[in-house]
């Protein structure tokens, strides 16, 4: 990426903007391929979700992620450039796209501010391939035309434009200048999603027989086919009115401030939304962070009972064994890349609003020459969402579940121009389109699991998203 020593805020005029775009167009003509022009500005404090609500269009892709307790949120809408990929090499294909795009990017403004510069929003389905007709590809990545992010008290707005030798620079200049004026006068009161505030009425059905699927999985575990498999349930909801995905998302981020509230839209109508408790991978300043999150029990209303449940979870041989499967797999998968991780021998308990999990944070230095997507390709899917051994368990999942997972338990997140980024697992999630939603939740099955107990665990996990959908 080429960073020019220009700052748009020091000469904020349509004429200066057009001059910058003219320079990009001349370079595009000389190189024989389009240039990505990226303009970053630190702006007055904004709520990225409010901005996304203001510009939301069902026919335009968007991506949003937020962890309220960490004070960070990132939104991107519309497409400057994108790639769709599939197959075992999908992570490598996305990396090549990122490298090629950055090689022809010219950036100006507050590029080094938090979340400055172009960002790449990516989603990887649970499986390498998806069945025909699914709304999301096995892998897709895009640079948004408009990007707004908050890190603590700092808000950064980024415009990304693809400039070709034959682009209409007057139209591009006008588009960016209109956006600049809108951000400068942004009124959150005008950005609300709106709609009927009364609760929607739903009809509900379920895909498949979960208890029977768990029973079949336990028979295959006993036969030695795999040690652990994660099986999901899917509940289909039909409402009496259209569901606005960002309204549901706002409810989730308020209920679950410790989770990744997220929304990914493909531009064709469907949005994949959720509140995921699980970080898959974070890379920043030469360090990587991941975690094992497996083994669950409900929360209780009283402090004493809640503490007793947590203590029982820590003593549970079945849950500790399930948790250890995840830790050992992470170590084994990353070891060939030279990764050495630090972590506690004893898991802690992570408490969410409706459930508590065994939790082990893991971190270490990023080996030289290893990149975020190299790590992601080896980690996904972890035993926390697939099983162990991974290949056998993942291959068995479609036949036992009986429905396509799509982005459920997939990897979603972002990368920046400096090699950093963060991905989380698409859990506690729903696919929303119009008045319909498919809601997902799963549980890990190992020897000693009981179909009724695993069904009850998924009921706990469903509760948050169902409450948000129902208002």
Structural descriptors:
alpha+beta; 14-stranded mixed β-sheet; 2 domains; 9-stranded antiparallel β-sheet; globular; 11 helices; 23 strands; 471 residues; Anthranilate synthase
Q: Would you write up a description of this structure?
A:
The chain is α+β, with helices and mostly antiparallel strands. It folds into 2 domains: 2-190, no CATH class; 202-470, Anthranilate synthase (4-Layer Sandwich), CATH 3.60.120.10. The protein has 11 helices and 23 strands. The strands form 2 sheets. Strands 1, 2, 3, 4, 6, 9, 10, 11, 12, 13, 14, 19, 22 and 23 form a 14-stranded mixed sheet that branches. Strands 5-8-7-20-21-15-16-18-17 form a 9-stranded antiparallel sheet. It is globular and about 70 Å long. The two termini are 44 Å apart. The relative contact order is 0.16. The model has no long low-confidence stretch (mean pLDDT 90).
């Amino acid at each position: 990426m080429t960073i020019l020593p220009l700052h748009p805020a020091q000469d904020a005029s349509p004429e200066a903007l057009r001059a910058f775009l003219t320079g990009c167009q001349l370079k595009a003509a000389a190189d024989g391929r389009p240039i990505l022009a990226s303009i970053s500005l630190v702006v007055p404090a904004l709520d990225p979700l409010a901005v996304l609500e203001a510009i939301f269009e069902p026919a335009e892709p968007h991506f949003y992620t937020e962890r309220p307790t960490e004070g960070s949120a990132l939104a991107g809408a519309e497409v400057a450039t994108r790639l769709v990929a599939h197959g075992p090499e999908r992570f490598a294909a996305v990396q090549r796209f990122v490298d090629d795009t950055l090689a022809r990017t010219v950036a100006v403004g507050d590029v080094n501010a938090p979340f400055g510069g172009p960002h790449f929003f990516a989603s990887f389905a649970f499986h390498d391939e998806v069945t025909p007709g699914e709304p999301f590809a096995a892998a897709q990545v895009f640079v948004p035309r408009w990007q707004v992010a908050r890190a603590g008290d700092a808000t950064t707005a980024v415009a990304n434009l693809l400039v070709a030798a034959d682009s209409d620079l007057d139209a591009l200049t006008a588009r960016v200048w209109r956006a600049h004026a809108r951000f400068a006068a942004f009124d959150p009161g005008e950005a609300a999603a709106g709609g009927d505030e009364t609760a929607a009425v739903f009809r509900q059905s379920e895909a498949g027989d979960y208890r029977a699927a768990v029973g079949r999985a336990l028979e295959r575990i006993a036969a030695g086919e795999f040690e652990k498999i994660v099986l999901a349930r899917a509940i289909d909801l039909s409402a009496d009115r259209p569901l606005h995905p960002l309204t549901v998302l706002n409810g989730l981020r308020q209920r679950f401030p410790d989770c990744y509230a997220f929304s990914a839209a493909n531009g064709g109508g469907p949005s994949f939304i959720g509140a995921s408790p699980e970080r898959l991978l974070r890379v920043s300043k030469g360090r990587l962070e991941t975690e094992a999150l497996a083994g669950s029990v409900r929360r209780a209303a009283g402090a004493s009972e809640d503490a007793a449940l947590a203590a029982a979870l820590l003593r549970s041989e079945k849950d500790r064994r399930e948790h250890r499967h995840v830790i050992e797999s992470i170590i084994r998968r990353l070891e060939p890349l030279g990764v050495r991780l630090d972590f506690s021998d004893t898991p802690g308990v992570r408490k969410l609003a409706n459930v508590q999990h065994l939790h082990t944070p893991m971190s270490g230095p990023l080996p030289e020459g290893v990149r975020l997507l190299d790590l992601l390709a080896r980690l996904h899917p972890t035993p926390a969402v697939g099983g162990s051994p991974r290949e056998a368990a993942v291959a068995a999942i479609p036949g036992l579940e009986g429905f396509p997972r799509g982005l459920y338990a997939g990897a979603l997140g972002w990368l920046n121009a400096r090699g950093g980024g963060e991905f989380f697992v698409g859990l506690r999630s729903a696919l929303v389109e119009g008045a319909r939603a498919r809601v997902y939740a799963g549980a890990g099955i190992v020897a000693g699991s009981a179909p009724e107990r695993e069904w009850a665990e998924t009921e706990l996990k469903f509760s948050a998203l169902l409450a948000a959908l129902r208002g």
